[in-house]
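> @MW can you paste both from yesterday?
MW: sure, first one:
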Amino acid sequence: MNWQAVVEKTVTGLGYELVGCERSAGGLLRVFIDKPWAPGQDPTEPVNVDDCERVTRQLQYVLEVENCDYQRLEVSTPGLDRPLTKPVDYERFVGEQVEITLRQPFQGRKKYRGELAAGVADAQGEATPWRVIFNDGKEDQALDFALDEVRSAKLVPMVSFKRAPQGQPGGKGAKDTGKAAKASKTSKKKSNAKSRQAADEPAAAQDDKVDGGLEQ
């Protein structure tokens, strides 16, 4: 079994969703996890540090048994800008702000940012599965798209900078915070767009991380 298969089997076996994994220079293995979702559940229920540490400990053991080469291991949430990679991700985050990048440009642009919504049937009863609703500076517009038209998609972090009322701890902040646990290895198409013009919103703040050092 290759290392990707080992990671996926371990993460899903513990009851989590594997959002992604990657290896980078210096032997760092990054694993991004989330809680599985089903219709009717809260789509933003966060993974916490205990979840990350649980997966980290199990991965340390399994990667050692399978003799997978790595130097450091980091398990974390996918962050506020969580990628949307599977059809269930789009269903899960309907109503959220997203940024999509098309495989092919339409009228000179590929990126669109706005509210994710389910597709709407036209007069002939046909519809693309999804749409993003955005404002072009004058009025709301809708871009309809199919998943095979999308190169990449992710959530847009929504952060409030409002101060909390006096006497209350903390203000309303981001919907989620990224949390991570680290470990060191001691041994080794055609588009049905109504419009394609929108101004980009300001870049959102990066997610925070909570790190915990774990040693075997």
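MW: second:
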Amino acid sequence: MRMRVKGIHAIAAASLAIAGSTAFAKTISVAAGDDAQSRLQEALISAAPGDVVELGSGRFRLTDGLSLDVAKVTVKGQGSGQTILDFTGQLGAGEGLLVTSDDVVLRDFAVENSKGDGIKSKGADRIVYYQLRVEWTGGPKETNGAYGIYPVESQDVLVDSVLVRGASDAGIYVGQSRNIVVRNSVALENVAGIEIENSYDADVHDNLATRNTGGILVFDLPNLLQMGGKNVRIFENVVVDNSTPNFAPKGNIVANVPTGTGIMVMANRNVHVFDNMLGQNGTTNIMVVGYRYPHEDPKYDPIAKGVAIWGNQHDKAGW
């Protein structure tokens, strides 16, 4: 029997329709060029619910992180190859873009070389990440930001058609959240390609995870506000050639992921792994393990339970 993530497709369609759905919504246009930092941040501050902040084509050279805390706003570029938020000159160590409001749509732009996480949302329900690119252009390095796409502590999360490359922890990470879909995306040359951590009710499907240390990880860890990760489906993904040496900073939990891991399930419950295509993952295509490290959290269960694996295709030559 297949689980379903309740209502997520209707939620995603409604979220993508937010732009222009409010009668008095306006479009705030921001062009690349001089003083892009202050002009773009001012647009994000002054936006009202229903507004679209439309980014022009070109490279926005930014020196600090950006933030959005207004609900029902769409931030839209001209495409992930045309609108580039360039944080190469970022002075602080924070994320490129931080979102802390509900019903936000982020689409059609790129984030490059942020000092910290690429795009983070916290407590942002019904958020959509669509047709985005987050990349550290110097290749895999320990000094790259930890996470590319990073929604946490949220409900109703859609990550659709994004590309993340070079994250020193996880390219696409969803943590301590509920009702999640990650689909149609590419995770390339990260430590963990896609990671679902301490979350409930997630579908991860139709993605390509390749040349990471580990392709797709489903973890549950102790000492967090939400534990007992459960009800995760990993299906119809292509998980191949995950052979990049682990470049996570020492002390990170993903620093222990063996190079050559395809799909890894750790200490989760009711996880279904099916109809995936796997190959050329040098250590293992699919691994199910318990959490084996010392901890002092009496509420934490370190054992993986109810994991079902079927219908996957394994090929030594790759796909």
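> thanks! Residues 209 and 261 are 11 Å apart (CA to CA).
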